[in-house]
Fold:
Amino acid sequence: MAIPARYNTGYNIGVGGAVVREGRLLLVRRASRHGRGNWQLPGGFIEPDETMEQAVVREVKEEAGVVAEVEAVLGLRSRYDPDNGNGIYVVLLLRPISGEPMADEHGVLYPRPNPAIESAPAGQLGNCPEGACTRPPSTFAKTAD
Structure:
């Protein structure tokens, strides 16, 4: 029996890939919509014909040039917005297989290092003043030991 149509509308499901290599977390600069320029996990929406695992692997490859495989689900967020409906976001842990983080058309791959950014707490990375974030658009950031 098919699922009633009323259960297939008003939802969007996104994924984020927490790719960890040698204790470092892969981050990308947001290039579109809300939060433009903020650092975040690579990710995006699940297409109708793919699983969440396929979607996160695709998004990590598209956004950062890294081929990775899913190891586990780290967590999820569910929220409701009257304008956009219900949104579910699943964060998955991935292990990199090949590829080095590479920039897309939105920036330079290896700009000069900035000690202030390197030592910033993770929660502050997404709120760098314009021009202050000098990490590459895709990079592995040092995680806490």
